[in-house]
Design brief:
Blueprint (H helix, E strand, L loop, with lengths): L4 E17 L6 E13 L4 E6 L10 H12 L11 H9 L12 H19 L6 H5 L17 E3 L5 H13 L4 E5 L5 H17 L4 E5 L6 H11 L7 E2 L10 H7 L4 E3 L6 H9 L5 E4 L1 H4 L2 H13 L3 E4 L7 H13 L5 E2 L39 H7 L5 E4 L2
Parallel strand pairs: 4-5, 5-6, 6-7, 7-8, 8-9, 9-10, 10-11
Antiparallel strand pairs: 1-2, 1-12, 2-3
């Protein structure tokens, strides 16, 4: 039976959180995500997902739909690969911008993952086998998944009392690495509270603490805070400056006694080269949806390794098991990842849409995925509960 790609189906989902998330812009009880189903002529279906972030890539749900229809679909006509490596070559060439030069990373991620899942199933190849095609020697082996543990991400906006409760729950579940989101009124009180409880383990190097400013600080605040954070054994400061503040990257890198991590400043491979070659940062925060898909995320990991930079596999609140599966395959391929925030699944969502448990286990441990494609399927019944509007169908024959 032919494996020709015959249709893309686009879904806008609104997934409810178990609790409110407050990172800008504003408080939210739900998250918007876009799913793409890639249908092959033999009936095989592959799934992709992306979470639009208007403040990072400039994308919205509407623009993702439009750019898949207007830009990406044209690249997929006559898609009928003879092998999985041939499909990888095609997926690697998908564009990162539209005809107006606008970034379309979320749209690209949705389509790329759907293709990889569909043809991974068709050819019987798990996505973690991609490292063989990539050809970067540093990726051979078992990756990071057996060593790394998921970090507890602490919401600094909810006040010290509620944040302390959140922290206790994570400690009871055996988490050892923590990230405190900062840029809020109670930053120092939150920091002191977490440090007081973690201090013995930090001193024995049995735990780690990092902070995420989310671009909220100016250069003076960032310099002062980095000096202060040394006293709290903070191992890394994520995105201390606004993405537009390139003029102060060098200053902070020169003055900070604490390693720096780029997140919102690291959208494209060109961003990665700029940051790495100028020695502005010490860590990449790679996120598959933000960076345009699994293949570009692997390219960034390769770049980080070549420049001896640390790595974090980031995630967004509200990702379903589709993106979580892609992130897990990433960790199965890429060694020397220092931190990850993946696999919160039903810890943050009221309900997932995939057919297997995707959240991390006790202590932040992650299981290996070894089935073909992403290694997951969808519960269509669950999917229907959260779909907004009518799905968009793009016929490619």
């Amino acid at each position: 039976m032919s494996n020709r790609l015959v249709q893309l189906e686009l879904f806008h989902l609104c997934l409810p959180f178990r609790r409110w998330f407050s990172r800008s812009p504003g408080r939210s009880a739900k998250t918007d995500t876009v799913l793409v189903a890639a249908l092959l002529a033999d009936g095989t279906v592959g799934w992709g997902e992306g979470l639009p972030q208007s403040k990072v890539t400039g994308e919205t749900v509407e623009s993702v739909f439009f750019n898949i229809k207007d830009t990406l679909a044209d690249c997929l006509k006559q898609t009928e690969p003879e092998s999985f490596p041939q499909l990888l070559d095609l997926a690697d060439k998908l564009p990162f911008t539209n005809s107006q030069g606008q970034i379309i990373h979320t749209a690209r991620c949705c389509v790329e993952l759907a293709l990889l899942d569909a043809y991974g199933k068709y050819f019987g190849r798990p996505l973690s086998s991609i490292s063989e095609w990539l050809g970067f020697g540093g990726f051979f082996g078992d990756g990071s998944i057996n060593q790394i543990r998921v970090s507890g991400v602490l919401d600094g906006s909810i006040g010290p009392a509620r944040m302390a409760h959140q922290f206790r729950l994570m400690r009871w579940y055996g988490l050892r690495d923590f990230k405190l989101e900062m840029g809020f009124q109670d930053d120092i009180e939150n920091l002191q509270l977490v440090y007081r409880h973690l201090r013995p383990r930090l001193e024995r190097q049995q735990a780690s603490l990092r902070v995420d400013a989310g671009g909220a600080w100016d250069i003076d605040t960032a310099t002062a805070m980095c000096e202060k954070l040394v006293d709290y054994d903070v191992c890394c400061v994520e995105q201390p400056l606004d993405t537009a503040d390139h003029s102060h990257f060098h200053t902070l890198a020169s003055l900070s006694p604490i390693p720096l991590m780029a997140d919102e400043s690291l959208v494209s491979l060109d961003d990665g080269r700029f940051l790495a070659e100028n020695d502005f940062i010490d860590f990449f925060n790679i996120r598959i949806s933000k960076n345009g898909g699994l293949l570009p995320a692997l390219r960034l990991a390769e770049l980080a390794a070549k420049h001896f930079l640390g790595g974090q596999l980031g995630a967004l609140p509200g990702e379903s098991g589709i993106l979580t599966a892609a992130e897990r395959h990433f960790l199965q391929m890429v060694p020397n990842i220092d931190f990850t925030e993946t696999a919160y699944a039903t810890f943050s969502l009221r309900q997932d849409i995939v057919d297997r448990k995707m959240r991390f286990g006790y202590g932040g441990k992650l299981d290996i995925l070894d089935r073909s494609g992403l290694g997951i399927g969808l519960r269509r019944k669950n999917l229907g509960k959260f779909v907004i509007g009518l799905p968009g169908k793009i016929h490619l024959t």
